[in-house]
Amino acid sequence: MLLTALAVAVTPTFVQVAAPPPAQAATRLAAPLKNDTYVLSSYYGPRCMPVRGSSTYHLGQDFGAASGTDVRAVAAGKVTRAGAIRGFGQWVVIDHVVDGVKFSSLYAHLIDGDRRVKAGQKVKKGQHIGDVGSTGTSTSPHLHLEIWRGGYGSGKAVDPLRFLRKRGVDLTTRSIRNYPRSVPSSCTYYTAAKVSFRTGPGTGYSKIRTIQANLKLTAEPGAGSGEWRQVTRKGRTGWIHRDYVSPSYTSHGTRYVLPSSLNLRSGPSASNKVRVRLPHDARLTLLRDGYRNGVWQRVRYGSKNGWVSARHIALDRDGAQIVPDRTGKTFAWVDPKTLNMRKGRSASTDRVLKLRRDERVRQLGRVSNGWVKVRHDGRTGYVSAVYLRSRR
Ligand SMILES: [Zn+2]
């Protein structure tokens, strides 16, 4: 910008300055994931912390997708980082210059950051640079994409959806589904352990008091500074290190109900009274003291505590969660009532057979374009991977 300004300033007035060329349409970028292989889950902007220690301002866009789905470079550029990093798990960062605009794209939670590309390598627009995984701070397979105008770290993280839409890629219309884009007015958290409540974002600030574990805090979405979170406890606002702030009671994690309904019981046995019938996808909080006989799990649902059958809850809610076991064999279970196994990787190819809910399939290859080759009952074909689950 500075150079341009100088060049204009020194142009002698008697020289006919050529009119600037008409505004060119921006160079079209590439989508990071193929059409119909993802759901738009968590958006750029202020949010409540989704997991303990995570950010409260989402600097990127999350795409829920099947583990193994191809991730592509949004533009040609040079890889500056590829490998492991705390938080993002396995990542790739690429520097680009497109239409004179310098920016970086960042792809996180990949299966293996330096399997497809290496730092220093040049990549083409649309090149396969990684595979969707769930490494780092993540609860289910998804791509976390950031776009940094001016370059990663030194520039500014902008909304990837807006940035790409301005350059010809509307990711909202290519998805399987878009979660509602809503920001709550207030977040509820819990202290994950006994912790100091301070007047400012750092250990150099004085201590207001000590707060015991598992006590309720409230916060505004986005309220934080670096590794510190601004929270309110009993009317007093102060700061706590992010590692001690958890969105779930006792911080033992969140699980989701797999079947279409599940009984929440008053005790760890099928003869205990049903407190409430939990719907499919109901969000449960695991309680510290609760895992009985490897079968029953103590959970909280809204304001109710109780017990559920542990095999009917899972870490993941969305997309397929196909994860190979240690022997290399990979099994997955059909989630919807029925699912067509087809001859090819497309819904327009012939049906081989109709699978039913909870039937088990063996995965025979990597997920590609949202489809995966499977075997069931001696027959081989392809299914859309988002309809498979990693557990029965
Ligand atoms: Zn994210």
From TrEMBL:
What are the record keywords, sorted? Answer: Signal
- This chain's protein is named SH3b domain-containing protein
SMART domains attached to this UniProt entry: SH3b
Domain SH3b: from-to ranges: 185-249, 329-392
Residues in the signal sequence: 1-25
Known Pfam families for this protein? Peptidase_M23, SH3_3
Cited SUPFAM superfamilies: Duplicated hybrid motif, SH3-domain
Which Gene3D superfamilies does this UniProt record tie to the protein? Glucose Permease (Domain IIA), SH3 Domains
Q: Is Lipid metabolism found in the keyword set? A: no
Originating species: Isoptericola chiayiensis
